[in-house]
Amino acid sequence: MPLIAALKSYVAEHVPSTKTVRVREFDGILNEYDEPKHQNDATIPHIPRFYFKKKYSGNELGSLVLREAKNRFLRRKSKDLLDNEELEKLYYLLKENATAPEAHERIN
Known about the structure:
mainly alpha
């Protein structure tokens, strides 16, 4: 029986189990895909950022000023737009002063 015990201890020390072989293979494949393929690409540092996270300073006054500035801007832009009554007057004048196209003219 000492021979069987010696063989078992040899196998346990020297022959890897199928589970450890699979784990090693998986780790190798995972490491292969985890490595960035673009390490040597010179254009990577030159790609611009399109999103910058807003810095939170904890200053409530700053956020109130930004909100008020936005509201004033929107009010100013809404004054530039025509209201419904002005649009109706404009449409009436266009209809009144419009001329019918001649038969040989093409309207695009």
